[in-house]
Amino acid sequence: xxxxxxxxxxxPYWHLIEDASWADLTRFGAAGDRIVLxxxxxxxxxxxxxxxxxxxxxxSPPASPDFPAYGRCRTDGTGAFRFxxxxxxxxxxxxxxxQAPHIAITIFARGLLQALTTRLYFQDEPLNETxxxxxxxxxxxxxxxxxxxxxxxGAWHLDIRLQGDNETVFMEV
Amino acid sequence: xxxxxxxxxxxxxxxxxxxxxxxxxSTRLRHPTRPLLRIPQGVTETTSPIFAESRFxxxxxxxxxxxxxxxxxxxxxxxxxxxxDERPVPNTxxxxxxxxxxxxxxxxxxxxxxxxxxxxxxxxxxFTDTDGWYQxxxxxxxxxxxxxxxxxxxxxxxxxxxxGTGFGQxxxxxxxxxxxxxxxxxxxxxxxxxxxxxxxxIARFDLDITAPARALGYxxxxxxxxxxxxxxxxx
Lengths: 173, 235
What we know:
Largest interface: A-B, 65 and 75 residues
Organism (chain A): Rhodopila globiformis (Rhodopseudomonas globiformis)
CATH superfamily of chain B: Aromatic compound dioxygenase
Oligomer: heterodimer
Keywords (chain A): Dioxygenase, Oxidoreductase
Number of helices of chain A: 1
Protein name (chain A): Protocatechuate 3,4-dioxygenase subunit alpha
Family (chain A): Belongs to the intradiol ring-cleavage dioxygenase family.
Largest sheet of chain A: 9 strands, mixed
Number of strands of chain A: 12
Domain Intradiol ring-cleavage dioxygenases (chain A): 31-149
């Protein structure tokens, strides 16, 4: 058996492969419930992380020729990112479990030797109460680090804290 | 078309660098301090985006950004993308980026006092064929200084990004070159605990890939995480 190749940091110069249009998952003409997702990334000192690559991937709505279901966005000079995508619905889980609507988030940056993975959920979704991943987090304050808040009609916001107070729950997949 | 939704096996101990690596100073305020939450793998983790060449056109020759040759030692990098069960990963996208031969990135954040090359940009994108093989042409990237510690220099390296067939396989890594004296001093390279896993990040010089009177050849294979044997669902 072969062993998976080691990860190494994306470094500060990954923008050489950046295509800013990738942050808009509706650019190929996907129809549906269009939403804007914004957020910031901060480090253990509370400083904004301005050189990260944020990726999102969602299994609902499913990927299609019109909808890549995947996006990538830089954090800007203020540590902020912004995606346009389609709002996910519930996702089948293991066995009969229903997963709440969610979007996978992967964070790459200088100083991260391998990616950090987390999930974004949406405030006020009844399925959040029984979601098999959220249910693994006993502390309600920790659980809230994954719940995006509505900031305007069709606009949701989630701040990601890499370290320290209110550190985001990161996951091993 | 079928979609494999079998979960990925855990990573082999020592094969991956811990994010808490004090020798690499930028990790200090960026690594999480809480243990990672182990989650069950569902369809979000076991499937991945599909990149079509029609929408993500290949850039397989980095050595001629303007149609004119870049400065530096021309190289061909060729290899395979396989999984831990040594099965080829076909039709998968590989993103590539690197410094020029003088050790300078064509990036506004790079202020190293080395020349830019108008004929070199440093961005590439290739796809594996049906047997998992890929190949591209470039120039050997130069070393460059960085601020991690006194007199710190990065070894020659090329950055890669791969997606595989599931988001749990996402890989971003760096390929190094054989015989580089800076490897033994580089905290990013040394962050991989297992020496054998680390050494697999070093390309091999390969005379069969070398093109006579044209370019030196290097072989570099990628291994993506393997899956547990079971479900394959019809998509």
